[in-house]
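Researcher: Sequence recovery benchmark, item below. Answer with residues only.
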C-alpha cells in the first residue's frame, strides 16, 4: 500500500505467475538464456535489454528467464529476487490526466526502488525509460526512472524492437551506460520447428484438437517460404492457431475431413492461401505439374516469343523448387524489345500464373522518375516533409501486397539514383523506406523493360545496354530477355485472340458476329505495317468495328438475334458490316454461298468514319470465321 493505494492492483508479479505455471514454457534459446543470467549476475550494467524484430520471441525468452529464476536450479542470488511489471492500462484507467498518471507510475517505481534491488522491474514499453516521440506522456516518468537507474537503485529487464532501440535507446548515453544489450536473432527453420513443437500444446488444449508433428513441420516450412516479412516463431504459431480455428469451424459444420479433430497439413496450406491470396494449397503434385507446363500456359497469351517465355518459366521453376537464392526476388528480368511485341503482356501473364490474379501487377513508368527528387516518390519523403506519413508508392504497395509483379517500364529513362536504389532490391530482396521500415521484395517478380538496342541483333544488345547501365546493375539481373519482331503468322493468332474478345462481348449482348478470313487478313496487314506493333490492334478494332457497330445498334439497323458479318469491300481496303438481308451482291458468294436470291440493300452505313489506332490485350481462343 502507498498512501492508500493498492500497489498489487498496478504491479504484475511475474515471479508468482511463473510459480503458478501461467508463463510460456521456453523451448530452445539455451545460449541466450545463459547470457541473460550472466548479465543479471554482473556487478555493473546488470540490466539486460533484449533487442529483436517483432515475433522472434523476446517475451518468451524473458518469461523463460523468470521461470528459471523461480526454480531451485537458479543461483541463490537470483532465487531471492522477484520480477514485477507495471500494469500501464490499469494505471491509465484509474487516473484522470497526465499528471496523475505520471505521479502514480513514479510511486510504483519507488516501490521497486525501496526493495533494495530484491525486486526487478520488467519493462515492455521503452517509453517508460527513454523519451519517445509517440508517447510524450511518459517523459516525466522516464526522467525519474533514468535517475534511479543512474544511481544504481533499481534493476531492470527491458525488451525492445530493433527500430525503437536504434531510434531512442542508443541515442540516450545515460541509459546505454547502465544497460547491457542482448540481440535476439530470428531462429532458424529447424530451431523454429522445435520451438513450435514445444508450444503447440496450448493450441491443443484451447481447441481440444490434435496437432501432429507433420503439421508443425508444414506450418514452419510454409511460413518460411511464403511469409518472409514476419519473423519466426511467431508467424508459424499464428498459422497453427488459424488452422486449428478453421478445423473447429469445419467440425461444427459437419465437414467429413474435420470429424477426427486433427489439424492436418491441408489446413496449413489453406490458411497460407487465405493469407497470401495465391493458390499455395495446391503446392503439391498438381502444382508441380502446372509449373512443369508453365510455357504452355504463358504461350496461350504471349504469341511468338517462345524463347522469352522459356527463360521466364525456368526462373519460376527454380523459385518454387527451392533452388533459387532465398534472399532475392523470385525473378528479376530485363525485357528488351520494340513496342508492341509482348513485353507487358508477358508481365500480366506472369501475375496471373503465379498469383492467380492478373491485377497483381504494379507498373511504374520510369519516364516519370527522371529527376533526383523522384526517389522520394518510391520510398517516401524524408521525415518532416509533406507526404511522409503516406510512405512511398513502391514500398507501401509491396508492403501491403508482397505477392505481385513489379514492372519498371522504360528503365533506361530512370534517374541514376533510382538505379542505385534497385541494386539493393535486386541483390538482397529488400528496400528500406523513409520511415526506416524494411520492405520485403523476396515474394515479388521484378521486370524491367527497355527499348535500348531493340533493333540490334541479340548478340549486340548487351554491348549497347552497357552504355546505359553499369555492369553491377546488369549482373544482378537473373536474365536479359530479348523479344523479336512478330511475323504474320504470329499476328494472325493475336488478331484471332483480340477479335474473339469482341465476339464474346457481342454474344453476351445478344449479337452474333461472323468474321471473314479476309477481314482478319486486313487487320494483320494493318498491324504489320504499324510502327506501334500489336498495340495498334485494340484501337483498330475499336474504331473500325466497335464504334460503327454500336452506332448501327443505336439506329436499330441491327437487332438482337441477327447475324452480323464482318468483311472487306471489293477493293480490299475498307471493312464492311452486314446483316443477312443487306449483303452486297459482290460479297454474296463469300458470305452466303447457298443463298438463292441476292439482297437488294447496300451495306449498312453507320454515318461514322473509323480511324486506325493502337492498343490491346490478348487472350487465347478460337474465332468463328465466315466461309
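Model:
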Amino acid at each position: 500500500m502507498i498512501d492508500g493505494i493498492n500497489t498489487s492492483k498496478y504491479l504484475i508479479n511475474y515471479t508468482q505467475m511463473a510459480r503458478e505455471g501461467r508463463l510460456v514454457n521456453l523451448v530452445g534459446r539455451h545460449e541466450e538464456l545463459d547470457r541473460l543470467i550472466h548479465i543479471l549476475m554482473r556487478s555493473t550494467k546488470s540490466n539486460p535489454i533484449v533487442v529483436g524484430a517483432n515475433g522472434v520471441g523476446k517475451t518468451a525468452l524473458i518469461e523463460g528467464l523468470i521461470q528459471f529464476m523461480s526454480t531451485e536450479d537458479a543461483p541463490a542470488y537470483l532465487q531471492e529476487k522477484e520480477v514485477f511489471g507495471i500494469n500501464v492500462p490499469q494505471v491509465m484507467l484509474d487516473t484522470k490526466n497526465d499528471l496523475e498518471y505520471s505521479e502514480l507510475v513514479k510511486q510504483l517505481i519507488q516501490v521497486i526502488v525501496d526493495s533494495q534491488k530484491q525486486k526487478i522491474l520488467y519493462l515492455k514499453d521503452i517509453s517508460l525509460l527513454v523519451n519517445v516521440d509517440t508517447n510524450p506522456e511518459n517523459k516525466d516518468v522516464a526522467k525519474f526512472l533514468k535517475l534511479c537507474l543512474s544511481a544504481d537503485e533499481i534493476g531492470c529487464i527491458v525488451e525492445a524492437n530493433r527500430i525503437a532501440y536504434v531510434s531512442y535507446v542508443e541515442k540516450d548515453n545515460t541509459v546505454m551506460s547502465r544497460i547491457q544489450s542482448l540481440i535476439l536473432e530470428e531462429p532458424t527453420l529447424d530451431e523454429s520447428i522445435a520451438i513450435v513443437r514445444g508450444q503447440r500444446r496450448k493450441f491443443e488444449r484451447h481447441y481440444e484438437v490434435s496437432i501432429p508433428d507433420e503439421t508443425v513441420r508444414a506450418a514452419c516450412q510454409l511460413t518460411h517460404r511464403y511469409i518472409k516479412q514476419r519473423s519466426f516463431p511467431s508467424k508459424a504459431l499464428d498459422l497453427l492457431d488459424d488452422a486449428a480455428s478453421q478445423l473447429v469451424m469445419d467440425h461444427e459444420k459437419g465437414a467429413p475431413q474435420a470429424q477426427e479433430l486433427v489439424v492436418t497439413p491441408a489446413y496449413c496450406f489453406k490458411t497460407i492461401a487465405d493469407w497470401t491470396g495465391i493458390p499455395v494449397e495446391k503446392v503439391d503434385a498438381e502444382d508441380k505439374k502446372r509449373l512443369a507446363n508453365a510455357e504452355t500456359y504463358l504461350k496461350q497469351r504471349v504469341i511468338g516469343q517462345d524463347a522469352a517465355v522459356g527463360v521466364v518459366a525456368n526462373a519460376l521453376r527454380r523459385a518454387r523448387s527451392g533452388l533459387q537464392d532465398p534472399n532475392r526476388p523470385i525473378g528479376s528480368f530485363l525485357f528488351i524489345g520494340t513496342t508492341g511485341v509482348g513485353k507487358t503482356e508477358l508481365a500480366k501473364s506472369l501475375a496471373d500464373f503465379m498469383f492467380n490474379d492478373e491485377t497483381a501487377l504494379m507498373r511504374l513508368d520510369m519516364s516519370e522518375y527522371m529527376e533526383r527528387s523522384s526517389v522520394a516518390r518510391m520510398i517516401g519523403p524524408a521525415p518532416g516533409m509533406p507526404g511522409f506519413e503516406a510512405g512511398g508508392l513502391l514500398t507501401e504497395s509491396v508492403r501491403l501486397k508482397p505477392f505481385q509483379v513489379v514492372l519498371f517500364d522504360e528503365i533506361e529513362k530512370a534517374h541514376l539514383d533510382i538505379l542505385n536504389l534497385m541494386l539493393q532490391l535486386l541483390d538482397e530482396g529488400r528496400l528500406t523506406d523513409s520511415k526506416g521500415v524494411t520492405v520485403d521484395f523476396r515474394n515479388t517478380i521484378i521486370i524491367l523493360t527497355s527499348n535500348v538496342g531493340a533493333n540490334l541483333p541479340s548478340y549486340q544488345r548487351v554491348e549497347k545496354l552497357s552504355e546505359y547501365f553499369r555492369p553491377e546493375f546488369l549482373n544482378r539481373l537473373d536474365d536479359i530477355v530479348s523479344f523479336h519482331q512478330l511475323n504474320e503468322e504470329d499476328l494472325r493468332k493475336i488478331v484471332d485472340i483480340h477479335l474473339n474478345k469482341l465476339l464474346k462481348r457481342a454474344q453476351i449482348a445478344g449479337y452474333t458476329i461472323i468474321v471473314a478470313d479476309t477481314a482478319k487478313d486486313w487487320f494483320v496487314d494493318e498491324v504489320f505495317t504499324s510502327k506501334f506493333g500489336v498495340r495498334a490492334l485494340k484501337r483498330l478494332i475499336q474504331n473500325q468495328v466497335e464504334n460503327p457497330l454500336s452506332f448501327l445498334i443505336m439506329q436499330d439497323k441491327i437487332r438482337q438475334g441477327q447475324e452480323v458479318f464482318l468483311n472487306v469491300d471489293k477493293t480490299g481496303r475498307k471493312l464492311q458490316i452486314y446483316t443477312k438481308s443487306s449483303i452486297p451482291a459482290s460479297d454474296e458468294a463469300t458470305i452466303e454461298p447457298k443463298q438463292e436470291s441476292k439482297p437488294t440493300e447496300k451495306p449498312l452505313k453507320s454515318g461514322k468514319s473509323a480511324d486506325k489506332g493502337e492498343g490491346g490485350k490478348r487472350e487465347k481462343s478460337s474465332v468463328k470465321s465466315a466461309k
